[in-house]
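User: Quick sanity check before I run a bigger batch. Here is a single chain. Can you write out its predicted 3D structure?
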Amino acid sequence: MKYVQDQVKETYKDGSVTKDGETYNVKFDIKVEINEDIQTKDLKKGENIVTTDDCQGRGVTTSSSSGQNNISRVGEIGSITSVHEIGHQLGIVYRYISGPNADASGSNVSVSDDGYENSIMGADRCNL
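Assistant: Done. Predicted structure follows.
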């Protein structure tokens, strides 16, 4: 789990951002741990769960308890997809669109929003 904790801390770094002339300091306090027995009903406000299963590389994050908690499903803990889904748990929105591929494969293709080509929340999922 140390690898995952380090990966999350590296991706979601503290910093500041200026919007409309106002500067905001942002601090992330994220703790990653394994708890095989936890259930949604056990969560305190602001706590989240990431579970694994065979979801063909596409993660999913949903809210419970009127939005106080989030549950994410990913194929593998520590994958770029799991870090992306943790971003949703923090309230960060998608920065890409998905739709049918132009070829006859029947697969979907995702394209990053302008300016988010190298964002963990974009289609390429390289950085935040």
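Residues 17 and 23 are 6 Å apart (CA to CA).

User: Great, the batch can go ahead then.
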